[in-house]
Amino acid sequence: QYVVNSPNHPLSHPMIRGDNITNRYELIEPSEYIIYDKEQLYNPMFEEFFENPKLVFRKISGKAGLMAVSDDEKFYCFSTLIPCVNINYVSNIKRIGIPEPTPESKSYDNHLFALSVVNSKLIRWYYDKNLSDKLSVVPNHIKQLPIRTISFTTPSVERGRLVGELKDLYGKGDFDRVFSLVESYLPKDSEGNFIS
């Protein structure tokens, strides 16, 4: 009764389900709406989970494993999805389980960086080996993903130039040169060991 096909109710919002995520980065536009009447719904989430830029993970993924998409359209999520927002967006909500903002969360402003990390082959491998039950994804799995905080020290113009150079080499299939340049950009100590 609360999931409808048209946005005629004043409390209706476009809603996505697990089936709307077909692959990493692939989100099918919603065709349903939810009448989000918090007084009538059982254990509703806060609107801040939906109405801010977020990553959305599909819960039931089977062999496909970890799949996430970005949502900047303020879609509401059905229970077959896990919405993930920056802690800062929910810091004003007083409820058990919501952590305090951290220095990292205060400086984090690009959820697409996190999306590219969680959708990477490396994180997929880590997830499959260490967290997956080969059926479903749960919020606690997502919290355990090893995502490093990056403090960019290279000026953005220079970063843009370097990325362009790497893209050109990648497009030409010169992968050895790509790896060599990436390695040369990474910080090292006086003995040549990578600094993490």
Give a structural overview:
With 196 residues, the chain is α+β, with helices and mostly antiparallel strands. It is 28% helix and 16% strand. The chain is built from 6 helices and 9 strands. The strands form 3 sheets. The chain has a 4-stranded mixed beta sheet with strand order 1-5-2-8, with no helix packed on it. Strands 7-6-9 form a 3-stranded antiparallel beta sheet, with helices on one face. It has a two-stranded antiparallel ribbon with strand order 3-4. The longest helix has 16 residues, at 156-171. The N and C termini lie far apart (52 Å). The mean pLDDT is 86.
Would you kindly provide a brief summary of this structure?
This protein is 28% helix and 16% strand. It is of the alpha+beta class and 196 residues long.
